[in-house]
């Protein structure tokens, strides 16, 4: 199971529900009948992860710029 599925803010809820509904039928689950649902879920989770990584990267750059500016101001008085 994907670690993102245990997150409190559940993303891709409709894909998760579709995969769970498909897994009710053990025969479909064991013979690859749920592969399309699983692929759709993987694509959705990947998209969410890429968006989250982009947000985190942007925030880290902003934080680094603030830190560098603070150090410049601190050493400017020397």
Could you provide a short overview of the structure?
This protein is 74% helix and 0% strand.
Q: Topology of this protein?
A:
Blueprint: H1 13-23, H2 26-30, H3 35-76
Helix pairs in contact: 1-3
What does this structure look like?
There is one protein chain. This protein is mostly helical. The protein is built from 3 helices and no strands. α1 (13-23) packs antiparallel against α3 (35-76). The termini are far apart.
> N-to-C SSE series?
HHH
As a whole number of angstroms, the C-alpha radius of gyration is 21 Å
Characterize the largest beta sheet: strand count, sense, and whether it forms a barrel: none
Number of β-strand runs = 0
Strand content: under 5%
Uncertain segments of ≥5 residues (pLDDT<50)?
none
| Cα shape | rod-shaped
Class from secondary-structure proportions:
mainly alpha
Helix content: over 70%
Mean pLDDT: 88
Distance between the termini: 56 Å
Number of helices: 3
GO molecular function: DNA-binding transcription factor activity
Pfam family, one: Cmc1
GO cellular component, one term: mitochondrial inner membrane
Organism: Suillus subaureus
Characteristic terms for this protein:
74% helix; rod-shaped; chaperone; 78 residues; disulfide bond; single chain; 3 helices; COX assembly mitochondrial protein; mainly alpha
């Amino acid at each position: 199971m994907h670690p993102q599925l245990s997150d409190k803010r559940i993303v891709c809820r409709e894909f998760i529900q579709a995969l769970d509904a498909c897994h009710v039928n053990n025969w479909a689950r064991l013979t690859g009948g749920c592969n399309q649902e699983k692929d759709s879920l993987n694509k959705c989770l990947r998209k969410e992860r890429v968006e989250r990584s982009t947000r985190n990267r942007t925030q880290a750059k902003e934080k680094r710029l603030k830190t560098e500016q603070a150090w410049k101001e601190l050493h400017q008085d020397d």
